[in-house]
């Protein structure tokens, strides 16, 4: 749709940027921090691990000062569950609690709105040993942790995100990491975990609302619209299959409080439907998020499954090579979109479409919590990072957001990935997303100096003019 004029970004639009605890903080066993599954995953030796990362734990003051200079109105980071509690997973760990008070206070000092993710992939390892999310008891421990962070930070944090990319954790578990044992859960186990995560999330929404805390809360999924590869009607069905199973099946429970019909049929048919207790239906029904957060990177293009044993989803490492799923869908190459150096589809129009579909479906305000361009940035001879491809990527996506706002979609913030360079899960420091370069390599920590990239100055100008430049 084209219009005579475009709407401006809302006056209080939350221009921001994102990081997560395990990818940025480092200090992975300091001040009583417990081990998380991330600390224990198998990791290629030549790639940076998470022990030091960007050392945000020791540089947060310097980093937030730089983010204030960038002009951010908001900053999305996650709290590491493993810093907040002691071994019994119930007793608060004061040093960890203080760290996030300091980070939040530092944001507030610069009038930056903290946007807090409660759980970004880093489950305590001791819970994993007892079955992790397969075990219903994990919900109880999660709620205990959430009670602590609501008590500590509930009056100063206005935007809460429950679980980062639950759909990635369930659909592509190997994309996040492989356990020491090498065992990846079966589909049946994964959908049991999914059910427990959904129950945990629903109870967190309810708890937040019962406590009458002043802010807002929502889920954060990785969402993308699906294109059909050809006009073949079976391709349309396949695209709808995968769009539903990959995105809506998670959000429908989070927002509408019940399983999507197609998802339910798919699970029953394959004998993957989770075990439920009689009270689950009411728990899920009581969930009412205030907004929806999405991480958007790419669209996918889909054709009908060949159903000949070759529609199999790839696992760890090569998680972007998404071949498909038997009897459900098959990935198709889209000749009309670009790709990043890492093969991720670049599709700003797809963001507009994703936002429209999301708003059509739930009519809730939308926060974009991730979007970004991974590249192997290097310092040039003058010690600068001229990341023009990133600028081009962000510019086109910001234009697409403005188009969606003009369409009438209620988008209230944008948190590109990432504020500073962080460890990429599989490519370490070879793949960077930040506005601020962290001077280290996978093998050499150097002095971890912070260097502003060209995109820093560009984004600063975007924010200054509320997206009008
Ligand atoms: C998202 C995750 C982030 C981040 C990002 C980029 O799915 O929520 O934590 O990792 O992807 O991924 P990568 O570093 O693998 O390119």
UniProtKB/TrEMBL annotation:
InterPro entries: GH, GH_1_N_CS, Glyco_hydro_1
GO BP terms: carbohydrate catabolic process
Record's keyword terms, sorted: Glycosidase, Hydrolase
Family recorded in the similarity comment: Belongs to the glycosyl hydrolase 1 family.
Highest taxon, organism lineage: Bacteria
UniProt cross-references to PROSITE patterns, sorted A to Z: GLYCOSYL_HYDROL_F1_2
Name the UniProt record assigns to this protein: 6-phospho-beta-glucosidase
One Pfam family it belongs to: Glyco_hydro_1
GO molecular function: beta-glucosidase activity
Gene3D superfamilies in UniProt: Glycosidases
One Gene Ontology CC term in the entry: cytosol
């Amino acid at each position: 749709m084209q219009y005579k004029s475009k709407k401006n970004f809302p006056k209080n639009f939350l221009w921001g940027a994102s990081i997560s605890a395990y990818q940025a903080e480092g200090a992975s066993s300091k001040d009583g921090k417990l081990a998380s599954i991330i600390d224990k995953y198998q990791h290629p030796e030549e790639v940076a691990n998470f022990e030091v990362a960007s050392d945000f734990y020791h540089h947060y003051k310097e980093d937030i000062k730089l983010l204030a200079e960038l002009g951010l109105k908001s900053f999305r980071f996650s709290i590491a569950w493993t810093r907040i509690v002691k071994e019994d997973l119930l007793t608060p760990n004061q040093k960890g609690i203080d760290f996030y008070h300091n980070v939040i206070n530092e944001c507030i000092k610069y009038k930056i709105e903290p946007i807090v993710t409660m759980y970004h992939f880093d489950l305590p390892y001791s819970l994993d040993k007892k079955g992790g999310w397969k075990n219903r008891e994990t919900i109880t421990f999660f709620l205990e942790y959430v009670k602590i962070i609501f008590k500590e930070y509930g009056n100063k944090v206005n935007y809460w995100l429950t679980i980062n990319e639950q759909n990635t954790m369930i659909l592509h578990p190997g994309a996040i990491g492989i356990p020491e044992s090498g065992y990846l859960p079966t589909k049946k186990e994964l959908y049991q975990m999914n059910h427990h995560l959904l129950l945990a999330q629903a109870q967190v929404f309810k708890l937040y609302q019962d406590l009458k805390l002043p802010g807002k809360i929502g889920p954060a999924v990785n969402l993308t619209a699906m294109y059909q590869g050809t006009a073949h009607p079976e391709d349309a069905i396949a695209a709808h299959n995968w769009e539903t199973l990959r995105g809506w099946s998670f959000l429908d429970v989070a927002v509408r409080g019940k399983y999507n019909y197609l998802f339910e049929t798919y699970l029953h048919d394959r004998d993957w439907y989770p075990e439920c207790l009689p009270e689950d239906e009411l728990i899920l029904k009581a969930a009412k998020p205030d907004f929806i957060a999405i991480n958007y990177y790419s669209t996918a293009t889909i054709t009908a499954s060949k159903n000949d044993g070759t529609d199999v989803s790839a696992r760890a490492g090569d998680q972007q090579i998404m071949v498909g799923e038997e009897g459900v869908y098959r990935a198709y190459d889209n000749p009309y979109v670009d790709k990043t150096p890492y093969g991720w589809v670049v599709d700003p129009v797809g963001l507009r479409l994703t936002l429209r579909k999301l708003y059509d479906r739930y009519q809730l305000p939308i926060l974009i919590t991730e979007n970004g361009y991974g590249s192997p940035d290097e310092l040039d001879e003058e010690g600068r990072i001229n990341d023009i491809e990133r600028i081009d990527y962000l510019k086109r996506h910001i234009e697409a957001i403005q188009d969606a706002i003009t369409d009438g979609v209620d988008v209230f913030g944008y948190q590109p990935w990432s504020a500073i360079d962080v460890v990429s899960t599989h490519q370490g420091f070879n793949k960077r997303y930040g506005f601020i370069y962290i001077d280290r390599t996978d093998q050499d920590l150097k002095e971890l100096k912070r260097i502003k990239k060209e995109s820093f100055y560009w984004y600063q100008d975007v924010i200054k003019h509320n997206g009008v430049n």
